[in-house]
Amino acid sequence: MPESHASTELRLRRGEPRDLDVITSFNRAMALETEGRRLQDERSLAGVRRLLAEPALGFYLVAERAGEVVGSLMVTYEWSDWRDGLFWWIQSVYVRPEARRQGVFRALYAHVSSLALADPGVCGLRLYVERENVRAQATYESLGMHRTHYHVYEAERPGASFFD
């Protein structure tokens, strides 16, 4: 994977163990900002640590500017038997507030897209977004993504508590 991407002063790279704290802090900030939820400190740290240690689960991309991580996203995998390929799910998108509207996510998305296009086993990209996050939806649509006809349902493990 190339270490950088042609974008003004941004360096894009895969997340590494040294990014554990910043990615975890981004996840906490994003959960609070978008859903009003406080992630449990130890559980959220363990979740990022595990993905960094187990590439079969996915990977992080980070964007650095002047040596500081200003944005990140996570990619996880979903097998599609209909397409005989993997969808890459873009998740945990976060850009520091002071770096927003400066092309950070656009650069991260372009990089993920190029990686996906280079891998014949990837059949597409997907992400989910909060219904009220109109700004993010407009951004995704401007990048060529479109809303699907699916709704997302979930059932959490009974008795589990993931939020403070």
TrEMBL record:
Xref: Pfam families: Acetyltransf_1
One term of GO molecular function: acyltransferase activity, transferring groups other than amino-acyl groups
Segments passing through the bilayer: none
Domain N-acetyltransferase: 10-164
InterPro entries reported for this sequence: Acyl_CoA_acyltransferase (IPR016181), GNAT_dom (IPR000182), MshD_Acetyltransferase (IPR050276)
SUPFAM superfamilies reported in the protein's UniProt record: Acyl-CoA N-acyltransferases (Nat)
Name used for this protein in its record: GNAT family N-acetyltransferase
Organism encoding this protein: Ramlibacter algicola
